[in-house]
Amino acid sequence: MKRHVVSTINGDSMEFLCDAGDTLLDVLRNQLQLTGSKEGCGSGDCGACSVILDDRLVCACLVLAVETNGRQVDTIEGMARGDKLHPLQQRFLERGALQCGICTPGILVAAKSLLERNPDPSESEVRYWLAGNLCRCTGYDKIVRAVLEVASESKERNAR
Amino acid sequence: MNAEAKKYRWIGTRTVRPDGIDKVTGRATFGADFTLPGALCGLVLRSPHAHALILRKDFSKALAIDGVKAVICSDDLREIPPDEAVVGGQPPNFRDMANNLLAKDKVLYEGHAVAAVAAISEEVARRALEAIEIEYQVLPHVIEVQKAMEPDAPLLHDNLRTQGIDPPPETPSNIAQRVQLGVGDVERGFAEADVILQDEFTTQPVHQGYIEPHACIARFGEDGQAQLWCSSQGHFMVRAYCAKLLFMEIAQIRVTPLEIGGGFGGKTTVYLEPLALLMARISGRPVKMTMSREEVFRATGPASGSYINVRIGATSDGRITAAEAILCYQAGAFEGSPVRLGCMTGFAPYDIPNVRMIGYDVVVNRPKSAAYRAPGAPMAAFATESMLDQLALKLEIDPLALRMKNAARKGTKAAYGPRFNDIGYVETLEAAMSHPHYQSKPGLNQGRGVASGFWFNIGGQSSAGIHVTEDGTVIVNTGNPDIGGSRASMAIMAAEVLGIDINRVRPIISDTGSIGYNDLTGGSRVTFAIGMAVTEAARKLVESLKERAALIWDISLDSVIWKDGSAYGEPGGEVEDERKGKRTGKLKAPPMQLSLHDIAKDAARTGGPLSSSVNINAQGAGPGFGTHICDVEVDRDTGKVTILRYTAIQDVGRAIQPDYVEGQLQGGVAQGIGWALNEEYIYNDEGRLDNPGFLDYRIPVASDLPMIDTVLVEVPNPNHPFGVRGVGEVPIIPPLAAVANAIADATGLRMTDLPISPPRLLAALDNQARSKR
Predict the structure, then answer these.
(1) Where in A10-159 does DSSP place strands (E)?
(2) Of the candidates B489, B560, B584, which has an alpha carbon nearest to the alpha carbon of residue B529?
(3) Can you give the pTM of this predicted structure?
(4) 3-state secondary structure labels for all residues of B152-173
(5) Can you tell me the distance from the alpha carbon of B109 to that of B684, in angstroms, rounded to the nearest whole number?
């Protein structure tokens, strides 16, 4: 029997029917056509499907779609505001912090979640926070730099 | 950036990549992101056994399930005659490929595809897989390369005779091929040596580890025309392989490339595409297939595991007089490991008068190996660069100085044949010696290792088309998947030649029906070879634009020059031709000017649309060399190795977009570190893989690595208009030995078996402590 779920996805109230065993990732990708969250493993090891559930960073492949009923889900598709990129997205572009781009949505969502709870992380804090997001292309160097730069910019902005 | 590069407006600048916004917003469409209305779900049934005969296949129960639209097995693939197995004498072997896609009478590894189904949903497809009955007779299996070479080893293929041995062997074995190459007289070289060292090395197979599993969707028309959308390293490769395997004409298949989420060589072949096409033909419905991560591990890739025995001789002042190596590479279930490339690259950075390399290509009950970044080279370099380190220690010579003393230079004849032209190996060594990293001193329990690497780089068949739109903006069409920023490089080179703002250039990756043939994205060829085609196409376009301007002004073509995106000319007068750097006269009056926009606007009046296309087989890819410095700290209580500092130095010819060149170096280093320290396949006694997931097959994560410093040495490749060399392969070659050499420096232990995982290093440290007591 299908379950009826209403959740707020990227600020919009969305309704969908799903099986009890469907993951949030299945529903995002296959029903809602929000394919920005990627399936790299389906077992929570790669972080390519990172989304924010209420205020918590989760792997959408490890969350059942029915669990999101009445809750808030933020995905990569909601990260830019209109045509204005999030500072992390902008800095990733400027620093070449992506190569193939498959891990990029998950890493951006994870980095945003980090900066929301720790606006001034050390390099180690960035590295450990992002340790759940695999990237096979970049060696993480430019990713970590981009995140640190955005953090230090917003610190400067706040100091002014 | 060097002085010469400053003459360029776009080359060498860190412009934002044209596909960047799509990739940071989640909008980019990767393999699994695309679907078609009415698509069926295709799944593969895989062998649970490492080696078994297939006695019986029964699909009746699966076909009886509501919603199952197709079930296929090897019987549905028409047999390719033996004399048509290869095309043009080149790999791949399509009989083997067909057998790998769907096992014929035997399964040769756990995960070998046996059948495939297409059904109206994933749930129905899964039930169908469960309903398929296959009866196996399990056979003894062999996983390790040395065991597979023994005379009484279980045979994978009853008819496999070793090639490259004279006379040919009368009995079958698992050794598919023996290769040998070299120069000089190795015996004489060893006789001249004051010091001779010998050691054995092993490396484990490692997976390319792309984060995007293989995915495709196929559609087949009743008229025999097929379409395929997939992520791959070459949609022309996919088209050609599918046509060959399915006995179709090439023009009947149109392949549209989707964004590729990493490949590293692992997506240079087909696994799902022919199955999806076949089931789309049978069912009349589109069929979408996506691998799970577990399937990726059990059935695709990996890079070959190896056993290597190296012997090296040198005079007491550090001149290497002879080197020889025996390399045994696991091919997986079908022949075709890159052992020849291992033989060719192993000592390529050095000018050694006497070299002999012998390689064996050996089949084992593992997935068919696939290309992985500099195929064959990292394992060979692990052995040879570890030996150089041992030699430096023995002779008490600085390891970089030893390499410098023996370094290949312009004019050196490489052991694998050619004589090097302009190469930058020495420059990488100089940069390493003077780098602050090398000047610093490691602390307690810390050590430093260095190592070098070589890769040929390749060119190959390449097409490019440039089209000027009605408003003077420019479309650059190429046909190679953009795996790490090549759109940016193409846009930069086109904008540079045309002299226009880069934001007016739009690079597009075209499908197989919209541009001429292209070899696949691999071997570090795209920025070099496709870049050459784009540059030539842009130059051709400039000539057309000048012709149009001459026509509009009614002056001779000689009186028109192209500069900064505009044609300049003077009726009957002469102009200063800055582009060619020679003065043919002076401008007497303000010149007439027509911008690209102006000419495009008037195109209809001057002869129609403006475009140019170039098709080449690019030659002269400049060889690449790199030298790496690695500092480690060893935890003596746990055996854990921490990479403290890493510097990668490489001759890149010319960095078109430095961010993405640095990124290639950093990414290659990270993969090499994973190869050295963590990554391995764990097979149990039944020949089944016990770690088919990212939790237990541990690729480096952000917290495993430090920043990876890069130094881009630019010794321009004389064969490329901007001096480009391929850069992607070299950086994965040195890290294996650089890490091992650093561990040797820190601990005094020479680790010759990869990965140097904590349990393995801890055992060696314990042994060392016991022997000291």
Answers:
(1) 12-18, 50-53, 56-59, 72-74
(2) B489
(3) 0.96
(4) CCCCCCCCCCCECCCCCCCCCC
(5) 13
The alpha carbon of residue B68 and the mean position of all alpha carbons in its chain are separated, in whole angstroms, by 38
Q: Which are the contacts of B444, defined by CB distance < 8 A and separation ≥ 6?
A: none
Strands (DSSP E) found in B584-635:
592-595, 611-618, 624-634
* Residue A156 confidence class, pLDDT cut points 50, 70, 90: confident
Please count the CA atoms within 13 angstroms of the CA of B422 that sit on its side-chain side.
16
For residue B755, cis peptide bond before it (omega within 30 degrees of 0)? yes
Predicted-complex ipTM score: 0.98
B14 and A96 Cβ atoms separated by less than 8 Å: yes
Q: Give yes or no for a contact between B29 and A101, defined as CB atoms under 8 angstroms apart.
A: no
Instruction: Say if the Cβ atoms of B657 and A126 lie within 8 Å.
Output: no
Residue of A nearest to B232 (CA): A100
**Cα gap B244→B222, rounded to integer Å:** 20
* Residue B482 backbone phi and psi in degrees, to 5: -90, 105
Q: How many CB atoms lie within 10 A of CB B165?
A: 11
What element of type H or E holds B764? helix B758-772
Tell me which residues of chain B, numbers 177 to 216, contact chain A at a CB-CB cutoff of 8 Å: 208-213
- What confidence tens digit (pLDDT) does each residue in B621-680 have? 999 999 999 999 999 999 999 999 999 999 999 999 999 999 999 999 999 999 999 999
Question: Does A94 contact B16 at a Cβ distance shorter than 8 Å?
Answer: yes
- For B211, the closest chain A residue by CA position comes to A40
Q: CA-CA distance, B246 to B9, in Å (whole number)?
A: 48
Asked whether the bond before B759 is cis by omega within 30 degrees of 0, the reply is no
Q: Strand pairing of B287-290 and B40-46?
A: parallel
Which residues on chain B are in Cβ contact (under 8 Å) with A101? Answer: 19, 22-24, 28, 30, 259, 261
- Cβ contact, residue pair B293, A41, below 8 Å: yes
Buried b / exposed e along B14-43 (16+ C-beta atoms within 10 A): ebbbbbbbebbbbbbebbbbbebeebbbbb
Q: Which residues neighbour B555 within 8 Å (Cβ) at sequence distance 6 or greater?
A: B569, B570, B571, B572
Nearest CA in chain B to A106: B26
SS (H, E, C) B481-501: CCCCCHHHHHHHHHHHHHCCC
Chain A residues with CB under 8 Å of B669 CB are: 139
For range B282-291, the mean pLDDT: 98
What ranges make up the beta strands (E) of B320-370? 320-332, 355-363
Q: Which residues of A105-120 are buried (b: 16+ CB within 10 A; e: fewer)?
A: bbbbbbbbbbbeeeee
Q: Does A51 touch chain B (CB under 8 A)?
A: no
Rounded CA-CA distance B477/B518 in Å is 12
> Residue B21 in 3-state DSSP?
helix
**Tokens 């360029």 sit at which residue?**
B8
